[in-house]
Design a protein that fits this description.
By secondary structure, the protein is mainly beta. The protein has two helices and 27 strands.
Length: 368
């Protein structure tokens, strides 16, 4: 059976300390255990552990699993046992370990059956800087010859240590969505009847919709991510700088440009082994459906077994320094505002149903 560890998505959940990754790792009668996470020079490292498998190679299923022990350690002898905060998700304490440039980190996991695996030591290298983020308005033709509009989001960045040019870049776009859960309906006979959702501002009374409280689910913030890993092997370095690197293409839709988009580029430093992992992920995603697709089992894992009956763990644990820069892209940046589609059909369910991973909590960085 094909084994897979999924990227997500974008949309994505947030790419905070966890990246969702998708790759083939060969065939086996057992489902692989996968570890997904890193430690950075930002707070609260988070590690996710799951079993992952495909059904008829069409749908990937990830099942969070618990472990007996998960320990984060550095090369100076400091260590911390992570706590399970929800099924299969582990974190350090609020005042616990945080990555520091120059240190080297490992992750040791003991499964419930007593098997122990340890990641190869991974150094936390300088993250350089993201110097500029900018958007270029573009018009292009689709396969039917119709015009499509959007923005290429690009950036310039610098490698702080000019002996290391291994980087992973991520785009995280955030946009605000308004919905109308008070207009939700249910089937009644051959028609549909009003049934405002409890989280909306309204209830149904003899006089129709009656306002009773502020809405709890009308406004949310959703995210969009770059569709494949962006690694530095494709980029030209000029005196330690990466120039005009494309982070993503952002299409103009009625939802994404209902208000504006917070466009953030993150630059993550990588060791050679972490770079090899992300490059393999990128190459496999590009080759999907190609005659020259890489063979399964080519994605490297940096875990080795140190105790117990023979087994394996897939995925990657690595150390990274993260640098960020962001801009807002607004409807005013569209030269011809008429190309922004109008919201013709009101969405009457919660916006979390329309945009998986969306939140009703306004992000700290969002400016109205």
């Amino acid at each position: 059976m094909k084994r897979s560890l999924m990227i997500y998505g974008l949309l994505l959940t947030c790419w905070a300390c966890v990246d969702r990754i998708n790759f083939d790792v060969g065939t086996s009668e057992t489902f692989p255990i996968v570890i997904d996470g890193y430690i950075s020079d930002e707070p609260d490292p988070t590690i996710k552990i799951s079993k992952s498998f495909d059904i008829e190679s069409k749908q990937s299923i990830k099942t969070p699993i618990s472990v007996r022990r998960l320990v984060l350690a550095d090369d100076l002898g400091n260590s911390e046992q992570l706590t399970e905060v929800t099924d299969g998700e582990y974190q350090t304490s609020p005042t616990g370990m945080q990555g520091k440039i120059g240190r080297t980190y490992t992750l040791e996991v003991e499964l419930l059956d007593g098997r122990i695996f340890r990641s190869k030591p991974d150094p936390l290298l300088p993250g350089g800087s993201v110097d500029d983020v900018f958007a270029q308005y573009v018009e292009k033709k689709n396969n039917d010859g119709a015009s499509e509009y959007g923005f290429n989001v690009l950036f310039n960045s610098t490698a702080e240590a000019q002996t290391n040019y291994y980087f992973l870049w991520k785009f995280v776009g955030t946009f605000q969505v308004e919905t109308n859960p008070e207009l939700y309906t249910v089937r009644c006979g051959e028609s549909r009847c009003p049934a405002p959702l409890p989280c909306s501002s309204y209830v149904l009374s003899d006089n129709g919709l009656e306002y009773v409280k502020p809405c709890e689910c009308c406004t949310c913030w959703a995210k969009v991510f770059n569709p494949e890993p962006i690694v530095s092997d494709d980029q030209v370095v000029q005196d330690g700088r990466f120039l005009n690197v494309q982070a993503t293409y952002l299409p103009i839709t009625q939802w994404v440009f209902q208000y504006k988009v917070h466009a953030e580029v993150q630059q993550l430093s990588l060791s050679p082994q972490a770079f090899a992992f992300w490059k393999a992920i990128r190459d496999q995603k590009r080759a999907t459906g190609s005659l020259f697709a890489p063979q399964s089992g080519k994605i490297p894992s940096n875990f080795t077994q140190v105790n117990g009956s023979l087994g394996s763990i897939e995925g990657l644990f690595y150390a990274t320094s993260i640098k960020r820069r962001s801009i807002y892209i607004t409807p005013n940046d569209v030269p011809n505002p008429s190309v922004i589609p109008e919201v013709e059909i009101l969405f009457t369910d919660t916006c979390e149903k329309l945009f998986p991973g969306a939140t009703t909590i306004k992000p700290d960085y969002w400016i109205d």
